[in-house]
Amino acid sequence: GEDVEQSLFLSVREGDSSVINCTYTDSSSTYLYWYKQEPGAGLQLLTYIFSNMDMKQDQRLTVLLNKKDKHLSLRIADTQTGDSAIYFCAEGSRNTGKLIFGQGTTLQVKP
Amino acid sequence: SAVISQKPSRDICQRGTSLTIQCQVDSQVTMMFWYRQQPGQSLTLIATANQGSEATYESGFVIDKFPISRPNLTFSTLTVSNMSPEDSSIYLCSADNNYGYTFGSGTRLTVV
Predict the structure, then answer these.
(1) Which of A6, A51, A97, B54 could bond to B31 as cystine, CB 3.0-4.6 Å?
(2) In sequence order, what E strands does B8-112 have?
(3) Are the Cβ atoms of B42 and A102 closer than 8 angstroms?
């Protein structure tokens, strides 16, 4: 069945780059998403990538997609303490609207 | 992108009672979704709320426990019925928009 896997924890120093990785199994996914969840808050859509793209850049965020390996990564440049949160990757089909989420990666940014 | 107002933001409920959660979207959307996030866990889709027809439930979720209404293209409710402590979770609604899926701020439910 469909499955999305993420590492659970990442710790970086302020100013460094963070790379959060995700693997998925459903080759029919049309979109892949990154969401951010701060403590006590809902989910904020950070960015998404269409499955026929390899890379997408949006300010400090870079998403890389390796379709062959079904691997997705989110790179945050110049990581700040305000980036500390849980990051979820999700795969989905625009036809069904159903999203399958990974377990979430807790990003800890040390000053 | 669509903005979703969800309420209540949190509640503490007695076991055996029911709670209705509301989501209002600031624009018309075709699909709305309800998710559950159990403590320390990821999000699991409960159901897709369809306007004008019954909701479509995922495996493990049933209408008697989680009745859903979708009276128009901007509003939906989820009721958590006959609650037990195992229902303590964050419940989130979501809506499709042209740029991905927007989520409400969530309802943090504690059942005592």
Answers:
(1) A97
(2) 10-13, 19-25, 32-37, 43-49, 56-57, 68-72, 75-80, 89-97, 100-103, 107-111
(3) yes
